[in-house]
Amino acid sequence: MYYDYFAGGSEDQHTLRENVDAFQRIIIRPRILVDVSKIDMSTTILGYKTSAPIMIAPTAMHKLAHPEGEILTAKAAAACNVIMGLSFMSTCTIEEVASSCNAVRFFQLYVYKRREIAALMVKRAETNGFKAILLTVDTPKLGRREADIKNKMIAPQLKNFEGLISTEVDDNKGSNLEASASRNFDPSVSWKDIAWLKSITKLPIMIKGVLTREDAIKALEVGVEGIIVSNHGARQLDYVPATISVLEEVVDAVQGRVPVLFDGGIRQGTDVFKALALGADAVMVGRPIVYGLAAKGEYGVRRVIKMLKDELELTMALSGCPTLNDITRNHVRTRVDNHHCRL
């Protein structure tokens, strides 16, 4: 049941497959005779230094993968010097994660019908040293995750919400996760609420869930400090595009005014390279982190991050790119490029 929860997508899972498959249709164009004796993968995200353009995505309920949950994920992030996104739906509290290590942490936020809950979570994150808010904007309702419904998915009580809300919902028609989301998620959230969020925190706000040029431009207009190209791991609306296929559209709209992060389908270092070549400032990794946690705890998460970093380093070397700034659009060819060539 818990594996299905982490691995699954919504409805037919078309977008779930496409998130990974779309990378395979992008070809790398390497350069030769470049001095790659030293490879530098370090960068900054919102001004915070990180060893590589790889960030842990905010995925929910890590204790379903390992008894110690997000605490171990955070320790692995600190050990690897990468930034961690902590989920609003984490099974460890904000305070537990903050006190476990010195990793740079961003906090992911959903807006509930009871706005005071969101405000309290933001305040707790800010008080406990989190450096940014990742506002997820693609979830007015929970996507139809058929495996969870079939399994009658049982989500644990979340300690962050003790005394505030209950996630214990008896619903024989499907998962209690779906029933809880239906009761709590606010489908009225709109662009005007960015101003409300900015009024209650000094932290920079990135919005997660942008897939179109139009929404990227609107996000700039309302003053967000960053954009995350994401389809929620293909867990919300099925048949939306694979995120890598729309990354360049968003990057072109943003024109470098704020950082653009990428989320969805990263499985190896060549995927990271391709996303960077198409304009992402960094990528987020979700499911592989959870699988590493389930297999080997903190060590497993560290191994996943190290594998991706090692693979990216090798890809950069073999492509003639000693630094991240050397990775350009000319290093990849997409299906769109092939179409233009035929024209």
From TrEMBL:
Keywords: Flavoprotein, FMN, Oxidoreductase, Peroxisome
Gene Ontology terms describing biological process: defense response to bacterium; hydrogen peroxide biosynthetic process
Cofactor dependence: FMN
Active-site residues annotated for this sequence: 232 (proton acceptor)
Domain FMN hydroxy acid dehydrogenase: 1-337
Nucleotide-binding as UniProt keyword: no
Binding of FMN, residues: 58-60, 87, 108, 136, 208, 230, 263-267, 286-287
Annotated PANTHER family: PEROXISOMAL (S)-2-HYDROXYACID OXIDASE GLO3 (PTHR10578:SF67), S -2-HYDROXY-ACID OXIDASE-RELATED (PTHR10578)
Matching InterPro entries: Aldolase_TIM, Alpha-hydoxy_acid_DH_FMN, FMN-dep_DH, FMN_HAD, FMN_hydac_DH_AS
Alphabetical list of SUPFAM superfamilies matching this protein: FMN-linked oxidoreductases
Binding site for glyoxylate: 5, 110, 145, 232, 235
The reaction(s) this protein catalyses: a (2S)-2-hydroxycarboxylate + O2 = a 2-oxocarboxylate + H2O2; 2-hydroxyhexanoate + O2 = 2-oxohexanoate + H2O2; 2-hydroxyoctanoate + O2 = 2-oxooctanoate + H2O2
Name this protein carries in UniProt: (S)-2-hydroxy-acid oxidase
GO CC terms in record: peroxisome
Annotated EC: 1.1.3.15
The keyword Flavoprotein belongs to this UniProt entry's keyword annotation: yes
Gene Ontology MF, one: (S)-2-hydroxy-acid oxidase activity
